[in-house]
Hints:
Helix content: over 70%
Number of helices: 5
Structural class: mainly alpha
Number of strands: 0
Low-confidence stretches: 67-72
Strand content: under 5%
Order of helices and strands: HHHHH
Mean pLDDT: 81
Amino acid sequence: LLRQRVEHLGMRQENTMSSSARTSLRQAIALSRHGATTRQLIDTCELSQGEAHLIQTLYGQAAGAQAAEELH
């Protein structure tokens, strides 16, 4: 029941997120994958520090290297 509620809330949030916000997040992910710093994500994509840090953690080069290392 809780999982369904969380999924429902996620879908609602996604539906209400503006297309410019989605574009900004996609841009931040791409920049992060290409080595952008957290500060660059904040300044370029107008993210909060927490959002930028999360994107760096999930998609940054260090995250990619860690994932590759876990496969070996």
